[in-house]
Amino acid sequence: MKITKHHLIIFCIALTLALLVVLTVLLVRNSRAEAAGDNTIGIYYYNETSDLIEAEPRGITDESKILDTAVELLFSDPRNTSLKRLAPEREGFLLGYTVVDNTLYINFSEAYYGMEPLNATLLRASVVWTVTQLPLSPAVEQVRFMVNEEDMLTTRGEPVGMITQANTRINPALSSQRITSRTFTLYFVNSDATGLVKRQYTNNNVDLNQVERTIVQHLIDGMQDEGLYSAIPPETKILDIATEEGTCIVDLSAEFGSKFNSSPGLARLVLLSIVNSLTESGNDTQSNVRRVRFLIESEIPQNFQGVSGINQPFERDESVVLG
Q1: What is the maximum alpha-carbon separation in the chain?
Q2: Tens digit of pLDDT for each residue in 62-108?
Q3: Whether the Cβ atoms of residue 107 and residue 96 lie closer than 8 Å to each other
Q4: Where are the domains of the chain?
Q5: pTM for the complete prediction?
C-alpha cells in the first residue's frame, strides 16, 4: 500500500488526539489526587493582604515522600497569586534536614542571618505549621532550627530552641477548629495587697495558640464584675509573649514600669499574679509553662520597684495565695 500525504495527515491527527487523551487522563488523576483528603497537605505561605501565614492545599503523589515534598514546596512559589513564599532560593540556603523521634532538625546556611528579622520569623513559622500538620508516623511535633550545624540564635544572641505551634510567635489565619471556649483560673492581688485571690473566668472566644496572651490580657483588664481591679497599669500593652522550653517570656510596654508606683511587696504580688496564672496547670497553655521571664520594651529589666531577682525567671509561688 502506498502511503500518501493524506495518510500522513490522518496519522498525525490520530497521534495528536491520542496524546491529548493521555494528557487529559493524567491531569484528571493529578487533580483527583490533590482533591482527596488523604493525598493533600497544607503548605504555609505568606498572605500580604491579611498579614498572616495561610495554608495552600497541595496534592502529593508519593506518600513515602511527604516530608520531602513539603520541604520542596516551601521553597517553591504558591499557585495562589495572593500568597507569597517566605523561603529564599533553596540552593545555598537549605543545607539539610532530618527527623529524630518527634523533632525535625533543619539546617540553614549563614544566609539565614542576612534575612530581615520579620521575614525570618515568618519563615520559621511557615516551616513549623507545615511540618507539624503532616500525616507522618511518628508525627513531627516540634522543629529545631540550625545554622551551619549550630543552634540558630535570636537577634539577642540566644538559642531559638525548640519551636512548636504554640510558640511560633506567628499564628496562621484563624480556623474555627482553633477557636473554643475556655475557663481560666486567674490570680489577682486582693484589696489590701496582702496576697493573691483565685478566680475563675470563662472566655468563649479563645484562640488556642494565644492562650498565654489571653491570660495576661485578662489580668490587665481585671474582673470588674467581681470588684477585682487589676494592679497592673491599664495602659500596659503586651508587646510579645512566647514560651520556649518551659519559660514564658512576657514582653510588656514601658507603661508597666513607668505608670507603676508602689512598694516592693505589692510589685512582687503583681508579678506573681502573672506567674501563677500562666503556670496554673488547669489553664492548659499547651506549652507547659513552668516559669516566667519578664521583659520591658524587649529588654531584661535590672530594677522594678525594688523587687529582687527581676532579671531572672520567676517560678510559681503558692505561699502568697490566700484561702
Answers
A1: 111
A2: 888 999 999 999 999 998 888 899 999 999 999 999 999 899 999 99
A3: yes
A4: 41-167, 176-320
A5: 0.49
Q: Find all residues with CB under 8 Å of 290, minimum gap 6, and list them.
A: 246, 247, 279, 315, 316
Q: For position 178, what pLDDT does the model report? A: 53
The b-or-e profile of 149-168 (16+ CB within 10 A means b, else e) is eeebeeeeeeebbebbbbbb
Q: What nine digits make up the cell of 222?
A: 481585671
State which amino acid sits at residue 29: R
Place of cell 508579678: 271
Q: 3-state SS of the chain?
A: CCCCHHHHHHHHHHHHHHHHHHHHHHHHHHHHHHHCHHHEEEEEEEECCCCEEEEEEEECCCHHHHHHHHHHHHCCCCCCCCEECCCCCCCCCEEEEEEECCEEEEEECHHHHHCCHHHHHHHHHHHHHHHCCCCCCCCCCEEEEEECCEECECCCCCECCEECHHHCCCCECCCHHHEEEEEEEEEEECCCCCCEEEEEEEEEEEECCCHHHHHHHHHHHCEHHHCECCCCCCCCCEEEEEEECCEEEEEECCHHHHCCCCCHHHHHHHHHHHHHHHHCHHHCCCCCCCEEEEEECCECCCCCCCCCCCCCCEECCHHHECC
